[in-house]
């Protein structure tokens, strides 16, 4: 199974279990999290890039993968992507390099599934 | 091998090696770490929940697994567990969500081995 | 002005400004944050200790002050408090010591205002 | 002296001392840091927002202040600003709230000095 | 009062209070912390530099001040110091720059009190 | 394939891809990162230990592996290594223990490939 499918399937399956536990605070928090990235004063694309850079400096591979997936759907170019990586590495330091490697690997998997034009 | 056994065996084997190296500071630090969770003014159960929430906001999967194991032995209910997850996610942010997923998966493995009544 | 009053006044004044900006995500997030510490499967007191230990290991002095204030109102004893400090310092490391110093100073200010019996 | 002037003067004075020490790695690192926010595939405005959100989730008040200053010069609106705050608080958690308070205070100081039209 | 004296007096006064609370885990942890920097396979000077770089990347100003004080006593040169700053900034990112500024300010205060030959 | 070879091959392959993307900021940042550990006022060995302890307290397994590799080449002894681990665990807390376990495992793999005399 591709890295992309594996990530998405696990994510959906576990989120279902978490939401199924009926903890109101967690349910509302998960809901809020998806709301934050909708079009507003800032376009969705900018917000996804904000989510991506925040995930990189906080060094969360799964959060990076999630935002890479959405960025890919929104048609972010590789050049734009690397400018986000550059800021993440400068602000967060060389400790972000291993996460950048895995991000590049995941982006290749996204491209293999659905190449951008 | 179950996720629980694999985690515990690796943990014990590597701790033995670390302690075998005879670095006094590390030996005393490891010893102190187990002491901190004993019954005191606060009961052991509360202390394990404190250890769990601290591990979640600092986003250390292995530390989360360790405290989930002890919480399970102490009879923490799923409802209590999710209230800890809720606080961890609110204080630590959505960056804790992937760790919550893996925590839920590990809790299921603990339940599969020794179901709570 | 006492450290406690200064902290509370600034906190309330700025929260009012933030909520006044009418960003829905932030308003709902702030609301959710207060909900997470209500009595539930776990009592409010335990939840405040969870909030305190999470704030200490993430090293946020203002968050620590907020939870110390609530802990004080709920009648947490000094002995219980130090057991939370002990776990925070062990899990989070000596990097938490300066925050522990400021926490002790703030607790003294709380005691000076409204001594526990 | 205004909060803005005080921040900028200290920042410039200390940067001069740091660069005056003639450590090549630091000099090149500081230089690189200013390069990363130039117009490129992504416009400077987006990059400043990326720098701001990264600074918020990493909880560095001075870094936040620096990017708020540049965002203000670039004409970022308050509505856009709060959408960045919303994402930072969701990704980074309630631990970012005290930094959001100080960010709002600093933004007010920037507005007092040079109100946006 | 000089920045150095103020820091040291507060540090000693609050440590005394913390140790006076008689929490065994905290007392042993504080004791262990001072033990870790004694001469061993690595000389004390190297260990203090390790403590300094760790404090910088974890961005704890008071911890940085403490290690700067000891480094100053041990005769660390400014050139050596800046090489530590360089590594801290590269590994930890530009988020460490404001802490570097305050570190340089504190080092100047140390020099003003007791200039190195 | 040994853990060491697997790590190094992935690292080199992904770095090549990242550098191949021709983002100037990232290229210069990667270049700077290798420069920071050259002999200077502080010897290379001390700098590698600084890189190692910074990687441990920031809890980046791949960064730890990279510095362990260089430390091994430079002939760092096990006793010296554990003194670095001790400081990392004290400063960074028990949250560093799982990373210490994996560091010890990787060091064994390095020793298996090229035992120190």
Task: Kindly list the characteristics that best describe this protein.
mainly alpha, 117 residues, globular, homohexamer
Structural overview:
The structure is a homohexamer of 117-residue chains. Chain A is globular and about 40 Å long. Chain A is an all-alpha fold and 117 residues long. The first copy, chain A, has six helices and no strands. The model of chain A has no long low-confidence stretch (mean pLDDT 96). Chains in contact: A-B, A-C, A-D, A-E, A-F, B-C, B-D, B-E, B-F, C-D, C-E, C-F, D-E, D-F, E-F. The interface between A and D is medium-sized, with 29 and 29 residues.
Order of helices and strands of chain A: HHHHHH
- Estimated helix fraction of chain A: over 70%
Shape of chain A: globular
Helical run tally of chain A? 6
Residues in β-strands, percent of chain A: under 5%
Q: Would you tell me the structural class of the helices and strands of chain A?
A: mainly alpha
Oligomer: homohexamer
Main beta-sheet strand count, sense and barrel state of chain A: none
Cα distance spanning the termini of chain A: 24 Å
Low-pLDDT windows of residues of chain A: none
Rg measurement of chain A, Å? 15 Å
Chain pair sharing the greatest interface: A-D, 29 and 29 residues
């Amino acid at each position: 199974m591709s890295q992309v499918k594996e990530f998405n399937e696990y994510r959906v399956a576990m989120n279902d279990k978490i939401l199924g536990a009926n903890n109101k605070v967690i349910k509302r928090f998960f809901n809020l999290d998806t709301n934050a990235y909708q079009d507003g004063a800032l376009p969705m694309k900018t917000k996804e890039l904000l989510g991506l850079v925040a995930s990189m400096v906080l060094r969360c591979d799964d959060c990076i993968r999630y935002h890479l997936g959405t960025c890919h759907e929104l048609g972010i170019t590789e050049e734009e992507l690397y400018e986000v990586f550059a800021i993440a590495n400068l602000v967060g330091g060389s400790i972000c390099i291993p996460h950048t490697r895995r991000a590049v690997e995941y982006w290749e998997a996204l491209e293999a599934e659905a190449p951008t034009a």
